[in-house]
Amino acid sequence: MSERQGKFLGFVACFGGGLLLACLIAVVVVILNKALDHFGGVFWSLAVSGMLAILLRPVVTLFEEKVKMGRIASILTLYLLTVFVVGSGFWLVGGKVIRQSKDFVGTAEDWPVQIEAKAKENLPPETWDALAEHFQNFKNYWHELLGKDKQSSLEGLDSAQLDTVQSLSQEHRMIVRGLDAEERIVFFDFEGEEQRAQYLERKKLEMKNRAVESIGGQGEKIAEKSAEVLKSAWSGLMGFFAKITYLAIIPIYLFYFLGSNRNLIDDLDNELNFLSESLRDDIVFLLREFVGILVAFFRGQLVIGLLMGVGYAIGFSLSGLKFGIALGLLFGLLNIVPYLGSIVGILTTLVVAYLQPAGIAESGQWNILIGCGVSFLLVQLLESYYLTPKIMGQQTGLHPVVVIVSIFFWGTALGGILGMIFGIPLTAFLIIAWRLLCRKYFNANLC
């Protein structure tokens, strides 16, 4: 065999080995996807407990070293401190967050109608005719997404009528959605706000009376379907208890994670004596690097996300954005997945600032959006130039494009948000493994 033939056969063998390795990785990813889908609740409990243990372990160590408390006493003190902090936070802003979340869902129901009205006013007729069918599909999808009956929306109202409805309270807006066409005509014929409010109160009472009469008249049908309802309720109750169980087990997992002093990697090093020293060192090195990335990433991202959420909430509230506290905290928590909170936040804030009651669409004033933009800019600058370098450093060392691709790849491969959360550490681990292989087994110039 000539030298050229030998090189060719070596290339074919390497290519075949690489293809086989890729197939094995694909099989492992598929198995992980199925496992996460089938045992999602179990994995979520362990994942949340592990992330909390990573975040809170320094606090336990601080109690042990500075306050001279035992491990069990430190953990119990941490639990009490956590309950106090969470309870205080809920006492201060919990009611506002819940109220703003409910108002946000109620307001969002009418966004497609408002967008349609503005589009008909500002777009050329030919352009709107081309988009009308697609927009109707979007409206249907939006109502299904919110779990609302599309017949109870505000379709068919002009801009002035929509502005009138948006000026009402949340309760009165819900009553208007339940009116039929003739009742809406009567409602809009009233000129004074007081007359409209009185009319809606009368309709509210009529709706309650109709509901009582309907229940009384349909007693036989209700009796016939009671078995189906009970069966469905039992299934839902079991699912609810399963979710409660997954949540209730988290403090127990967390207690044992925080209470353990074992170094599993050192134990693994002793258990792998049957392997060669070189291979054993490589495996232990990769595991140490992976655990280090996990600890740095989750601890850093949770702290950064919390601080960004507080910053967004303050900035949005000062800017006059409705639901500013709820949206700000949500966008901050979404930043646990890098860039997700910023991308979703910018788009959502633009829509809310435009369509909210007394927003840009109604008042024509852009002050709210400018204030939110300044808030986003300040929080992003603080995160990019201070929080991330100070808290995260260069623990992952990944390019932003690699971060975005890895988020979507692992989110798709592992079936959802859990894959997106673990996407960065997994990608960083694969890059570290590749660098190790390059430096040890391949030509370093290729790396």
What does this structure look like?
By secondary structure, the protein is mostly helical. Among the domains are: 1-38; 262-447, no CATH class. It is built from 20 helices and no strands. Helix 2 packs across helix 14 (277-319) and helix 4 packs antiparallel against helix 5 (125-146). The protein is globular.
Blueprint of the fold:
Layout: H1 3-38, H2 40-66, H3 71-108, H4 111-122, H5 125-146, H6 159-166, H7 170-177, H8 181-189, H9 193-217, H10 219-224, H11 226-248, H12 250-259, H13 264-271, H14 277-319, H15 324-334, H16 340-355, H17 360-363, H18 367-392, H19 400-413, H20 417-441
Helix pairs in contact: 2-3, 2-11, 2-12, 2-14, 3-15, 4-5, 13-14, 14-15, 14-18, 14-20, 15-16, 16-18, 19-20
Note the main attributes of this structure.
mainly alpha, single chain, 447 residues
Number of helices: 20
Overall residue-averaged pLDDT value:
76
Instruction: Please state roughly what percent of the residues sit in beta strands, choosing from under 5%, 5-15%, 15-25%, 25-35%, 35-45% or over 45%.
Output: under 5%
Number of strands: 0
CA radius of gyration is 29 Å
Structural class: mainly alpha
